[in-house]
Design a protein that fits this description.
Pfam families: CHCH
Radius of gyration: 20 Å
Strand content: under 5%
Keywords: Disulfide bond
Mean pLDDT: 75
Protein name: CHCH domain-containing protein
Number of strands: 0
InterPro entries: CHCH, Cys_alpha_HP_mot_SF
Structural class: mainly alpha
Helix content: 10-25%
Distance between the termini: 76 Å
Length: about 110
């Protein structure tokens, strides 16, 4: 006989929620378009999230605007500022514009 509760959990032990990541579910589907755009981007890029940062940002902004998560500065969520979302590193490991763009004055 098992001492655990249903599904093998311990009875009487209260789970402790994580500090981050707990926010209301989008029951009214207010941010479905942003979520679908982000997921479609992930699928089309072979799940390379760095290539879908603009969609991730839009989704987070949607959730904050609709009080589905706490409002936070985007820099605290990994975004540098409102118009910069591309953080794809160059081959040498530094952040920048990428090797395919011509440099000014060259």
């Amino acid at each position: 006989m098992s001492a655990g509760g249903a599904f093998g959990g311990n009875r009487g032990v209260r789970p402790v929620p994580p500090e981050k990541g707990v926010f209301p579910l989008d029951h009214l589907h207010e941010c479905d378009l942003e979520k679908k755009d982000y997921l479609a981007c992930l699928k089309s890029t072979g799940f390379q999230s760095e290539k879908c940062r603009q969609f991730s940002k839009k989704y987070l902004e949607c959730r904050m605007e609709r009080n589905l998560m706490a409002k936070q500065d985007m820099s605290e969520l990994g975004f540098r500022n409102a118009d910069e979302v591309d953080t794809q590193p160059e081959k040498n490991g530094k952040l920048g514009s990428g090797p395919s763009e011509p440099k000014e004055g060259a």
